[in-house]
Design brief:
Radius of gyration: 23 Å
Mean pLDDT: 88
Strand order of the largest sheet: 2-1-3-4-6
Strand content: 5-15%
Low-confidence stretches: none
Shape: globular
Order of helices and strands: HHEHHEHEHHHHHEEHEEH
Largest sheet: 5 strands, parallel
Length: 363
């Protein structure tokens, strides 16, 4: 029995050692090879390719004044850039992606890619205003480890080890390499056909990618929008959007002030824009509590000289204009919000807060 017990102990510690060694090897491979991306339970690789398309859109030359919108998927699903460009003198760039990404990531990414003189609109889900540093936010951490390894803000070594302990080894090492190569080829083909050479016969105010293919870069229009999703799947959905007790975090204030400083140093105009909201029992224009919520948020921001532009009621729509969540507009909703945004741009022009560039003089 004693010999058998010792053997069990040896097998146990041997398996632990081999597991640790195997995990260490996988971590080393994943961190040292840029061609291998770790796959975790919440990895959303579509974001990597979506950002690659948006970076291509952002890099295109233009003689018009650039307007960039940053934030989560309420922006990704929330605009028809073709309509905005056809009715204004601006180049529109939609950098909206995912509401799960923290404010620091949205801000740092645009700080790396904005140009002097840009106009930037920040439109965030309301919960972000109350969030602190994204330490131990494993959705954020695992996505950074998977598709943006260079971005390490608020990610500790312990966080990485805890994340890698939940790594899906086979999806990481076996099929991903093939899928990644195929996806890269598809990505380049999509950029060439859909982004750089859109169909010239399509109406200039309609969504320039009529083929919605779900959460994929293939659904993007040449301005970075998802704008062809049709129907409404939120018939039973409700959302309060924010609590009447929401407290704006010091972290958000410091991050936004950091973005403000960046913008001021580069002659970039920065505006805070309301996200779209859906009329529902928990957030209704007929409910005094809804207005109290919005007053609470705006007054806390105003105490730090941070102000929204426009009126949240101008971006508040009926249920039929939402697609699959209370944050995602369908194609009709995206057109409606784009019309509201165009109206806001004209108001800002009249107030002298923004101006389109004058067209170049003919030689």
């Amino acid at each position: 029995m004693k010999t058998f017990g010792k053997r069990q102990v040896a097998v146990y510690f041997g398996s632990v050692f081999l597991s640790a060694l195997g995990l260490a090897l996988v971590v080393w491979v994943c961190t040292s090879s840029p061609s291998i991306q770790p796959i975790f339970a919440h990895t959303e690789l579509w974001l990597k390719y979506t950002y690659a398309i948006k970076d291509t859109i952002n890099a295109r030359p233009t003689q018009r004044q650039r307007i960039i919108v940053i934030g989560g998927s309420s922006n990704l699903f929330g605009f028809n850039g073709a309509m905005i460009e056809a009715n204004t003198s601006y180049t529109f760039i939609n950098y909206g992606t995912h509401g799960g990404l923290p404010a620091n990531y949205h801000f740092d990414r645009i700080m790396q890619r904005a140009r002097s003189g840009d106009i930037i609109f920040v439109s965030l889900n309301f919960d972000i205003y109350g969030q602190g540093k994204p330490t131990q936010d494993f959705w954020y951490i695992t996505n950074m480890l998977s598709w943006d390894k260079e971005y390490q803000r608020y990610i500790s070594t312990l966080d990485k080890l805890q994340a890698y302990a939940q790594l899906k080894i086979l999806p990481t090492l076996v099929p991903l390499i093939h899928r990644q190569l195929v996806s890269q080829a598809e990505l380049e083909q999509f950029i060439h056909k859909q982004i750089l050479k859109p169909d010239p016969t399509r109406s200039p105010i309609s969504c320039q990618n009529p083929n919605f293919q779900g959460y994929s870069y293939k659904s993007l229009s040449p301005t970075g929008d998802f704008c062809s999703q049709s129907g409404s799947l939120v018939l039973d959905s409700t959302s309060p959007y924010l609590s009447k007790y929401l407290q704006v975090s010091g972290f958000f204030i410091s991050e936004y002030k950091r973005l403000e400083s960046f913008a001021k140093a580069r002659d970039i105009k920065l505006f805070l824009l309301y996200p779209p909201t859906m009329e529902n029992p928990l957030f209704s224009l007929e409910d005094k509590e809804t207005h109290a919520k919005m007053h609470n948020l705006s007054s806390q921001l105003a105490a730090h000289n941070i102000h929204f532009v426009g009126d949240f009621r101008d971006f508040h729509y009926e249920r039929k204009y939402f697609y699959d969540t209370p944050y995602h507009l369908n194609s009709d909703g995206a057109n409606l919000r784009s019309a509201s945004f165009i109206k806001l741009l004209l108001q800002l022009e009249k107030q002298g807060l923004i101006t389109p560039k004058s067209p170049p003089k003919p030689k």
